[in-house]
């Protein structure tokens, strides 16, 4: 049970995705997250309701911001990994399911609950108290109306209360929890001795008569499977790269549009002074803000050391003003574009001219650079290769249906499809069905090759996408039916098998005798390994099979012994020398472990609840669209 709990609660990704589900988005883009889906292609559907690519991309950006807010370095490769993409999509689906359940059961957040939460949000505090001016200003900057913002916060709070309510349902009697935790954190000092099969091989003799008898009794085991020799034609995106081209202008444009993707691991640290204006500001209001910003800039230029003091006094960014304008470290994609462009063009110690963004006028001071950037010249060939392949993929998508139709319509030969698409008809060696499946990495194609239509009527198979961007059609040119193998072909293998079986029995007998002597308290001569102390997380070099058995040993009397057969290896004896239930020695550790155990049970309860919701809904994933999407 503990292992089942651990798999749902460990790992940094689980924590990030949990945060995506239950942490209020507040001023971090919830409006765009929920409402900018538009008419774009769906990456998934929950009971027919689309999850758009825009919604998914916004969730990825929210995950990036969350990781940065936790002081984590954001690895672009991580954001593009299939595991991360699937986890983010799962978080959106989970949120949709929980919100649907909340609506079905008419669960609601009262006005008092909403008011208490909003008043307590740190974003709206000024000198330790809720500031209505700050509240209105920040909502205006984020293009949110109070009604829309409060509606979104109600949803967040409802989801949060469902999760907390599930956790509060968990109850585990103290004694039961203590027993489970004692077992989980128990340490055992152990040693091991192996009685190996290989040590008995020279003691075994197998006669020709025994080999012949085994062959006669098991002839059905020695059937050579049917084989076919194939012709096949492959349409692949990789093979179309030579048919497309990419200009230098396209490479440059891609580099500029995807700067975050090509930034390497470079991070910038900066401070700023913001003189803000809202999206509805008049020309006069903007001019007044600019005049004030220019006045402050003049003071900063005259005395750069006054930057922090002036930020505290004048900056209207409430989150950074109190820290002298310090924004911490950030990579590309974390800031609005004008701010990013300026910050990434500066040297350490530089102070920018006024930088205008949708939030107002910024005066930026670059305070540090870490990591390495990737400039255009160093990335040019890589970008060109990626663009070439993207164009080849698009061309492949255009040709795929026509390839499949041609293979079907002219099923008597592969030459027409090869000529039409400029492909080479290739010939394989003779292969079994399993070998074909491995060679092409396709069980589907292997099954088609051995169908009556292909094997007997000599037709082409249908076009099969054996992997992304690779279509294959095949036909048989030679067939060898299955047939019994002769005795001479297999007698060597049979002799080895019989020797191994006999040696295994001898090893088991020796091991069991050794175990019996040890349990009887007799002195034995055995080649024990140096004792090691293990727990369920730390094997200290012991094999998986030993670790699966070491905590099965009854330790009522020490030393304790246990033996087991290890397939094709021999017999292993485990000796448990001592047991340390370390939670007994540390009440503080025991208390932390108990709390973690309760949290794990709560997480398991939440996981089971979400699984039950998924089982009741029609959930469709567009994995191909998701995995081909470039989110950076």
TrEMBL record:
Superkingdom of source: Bacteria
The protein's name in its UniProt record: Periplasmic chaperone PpiD
Ranges of residues in domain PpiC: 265-368
Organism field: Methylophilus flavus
TM regions (residue ranges): 12-30
UniProt cross-references to Pfam families, sorted A to Z: Rotamase_3, SurA_N_3
Subcellular location(s) of the protein: Cell inner membrane
Membrane topology listed for this record: Single-pass type II membrane protein
Key words of the record: Cell inner membrane, Cell membrane, Chaperone, Isomerase, Membrane, Rotamase, Transmembrane, Transmembrane helix
Family: Belongs to the PpiD chaperone family.
Database matches in InterPro entries: PPIase_dom_sf, PPIase_PpiC, PPIase_PpiC_CS, PpiD_chaperone, Trigger_fact/SurA_dom_sf
